[in-house]
Hints:
Shape: globular
Structural class: alpha/beta
Number of domains: 5
Amino acid sequence: MASLNLKEALKSYFGFDGFKGAQEEIIQNVLDKKNTFVIMPTGGGKSMCYQLPAILSEGTAIVVSPLIALMKNQVDAIRSISNDESVAHFLNSSLTKTEITRVKGDIIAGKSKLLYVAPESLTKKENIEFFKSVKISFFAIDEAHCISEWGHDFRPEYRRLREIFSEISEVPIIALTATATPKVQYDIQKNLNMLDATIFKSSFNRDNLFYRILPKKDVEKQIIKYIRGQKGKSGIIYCLSRKKVEELAEILQVNGINALPYHAGLDSGSRARHQDMFLMEDVDVIVATIAFGMGIDKPDVRFVIHHDIPKSLESYYQETGRAGRDGGEGECISFYRYKDIEKLEKFLQGKPVAEQEIGRQLLNEIASFSETSVCRRKMILHYFGEEYDERNCNSMCDNCKEPKEKTEGKTYVKHLLDAVELLKETQKSKHYCALLSGNVNSEIKAYKHNELPLFGIGKDKDEHFWNAVVRQSVVSGLLSKDIESYGVLKLTEAGVKFKNNPSSFLLSKERDYLVIDDDSIVVNNGGGAAFDQGLYDQLVDLRKSLSKKKDIPPFVVFQEPSLKDMCFQYPITIEELTNVQGVGNGKAQRYGVPFVALISRYVEDNNIERPQDVVMKSVVNKSGLKVQLIQNIDRKLPLEDIGRSQGKSVDEVIEKIQAIVTSGTRVNINYYIDDVLDSDSQEEIYEYFAEAETDDLTEAHNEFEGDYSEEELRLMWIKFMSEMAN
């Protein structure tokens, strides 16, 4: 078909004046009955590459698609450009027998040009027999990365497609994906037996997207604050678990944000309704697992937020790619802490060894991407086998917008390359980091590499630093990771040249995410609000005078962490005071008035611009758990039984009770304490707290020289604070 006719067909059927990128050549290749492989970023117009040739070809094109929601969306789009609804159908488990009969009737009658099928439907014997009896124009595989074990969304049923296609009809295949590293690309072609395919690969660069990685702390607060500044804009928030999707959607809703959940655990009716509401702009934000968004044609998604870092760089690229498909602004924000990577690694346990190795390597890549100070765009494109000059980023990632300091790293890079050569290119990056920093771990010991001359040559730097040297050497093309052997480092030609004749190499200081515990993270790169020592001193004095007046220890009024938090938040109303750490309604009402009055005067006198931190309402079911706990205590249930019913240890139950009491709620656990401590012991500990300067339990433990256990002291602290403070 002549090129002019293709343009006329495009205008006639779809109303577009011209093709995007390589669309025209791809469509011509399909019409010429050649196998075709398309690697094109999200928003590049992949669907058109099989939709137009299907309409122009004799017979029906079978499009394999992974999601029911995606099929519905695509079929609706095709039907909207045709007078005849029969032009496109889908065949999947959501259809009734009557609907299936109608679909097959339209195909036999030659009315249907496109049939979207799930791979599971394609494997059914009766469907294979039916397809053998009708004219098939070609097979299209959308989201083809699902075929590859190295792809970010691998599905075993996709590996059987080639044998099913061969059984049905020997017609051409077009495979399409938005993400494929060279390894994934080869795997797909080999599996589909189409190594002869014409490959069309567009640039992976999405220059309108801004990439930012943030430390994972106070995530819900940060998300609410961000979305409140994006009024009327559409956005997607991705979470790794269904439970987190539900929780976050609910938190957003109670904080006045128009949001809905989307995950595979919802019934199909709810999923379809939520998706349609998002497309029709009845809802601004969808909180979803990765099940949402594959092929969803909403061009004006303005932000994509990752509450949890994805399992691979492909997933990250694919999901962030749903922002700004119309070429307009698109902000991609992800929250990261290394502890999440460790959790994902644990989930790999029990899987086949090869699958574990692949999974670990993919996790290592996303961790490197998150922690790097190199241009994020350059790093993404390098991963997909594309060279990129970071000067073209134009500050469209956090690392280019707020660059980290650079230092001369020629000597370090030379040591690393020497080590790779010395170990005959047999090890992964972790091993070289241990070797150069002088860490005698079990592997170094087993190989006796601690006896090598290069061992500890860079011991003035830690493994985190050497990891940065490895990453930046790989991105700069001096080293490559051999994918076949799960990330073993190899010297490139450029690396050999550098090793023999070292030149200047500027190393960017890496972002250091130091995990402290499950709920907090420190970013070792400066920043953060300054602590107001002047206000703190005044609050301490006020607490002291109030405690003397009421004849109670100062910590009974407000504990030290609460006073410190006041110096960051500057609460000037009782309602704002309840957002301070360890201050509930009861405590705020009882002691808060003079404190907020002092802070209000201080803010005014010192012209302090208060941080516009969001006031985040908590979700009902959290307070529901608190109510349930208090009700169980009122029923005088043993703490062991309460813990068992909630899947918690006694220690965890006591911790929860402590938190409730700290925030100002009275809790009576005397029935439990009476079984643990006699009245004399209770009196002795109670008197200690009444006269103590601090409620630090370590000091209490030392004072009693170990006569009472930590649990006994904590129980008495609860009793004392309930009666004296609340």
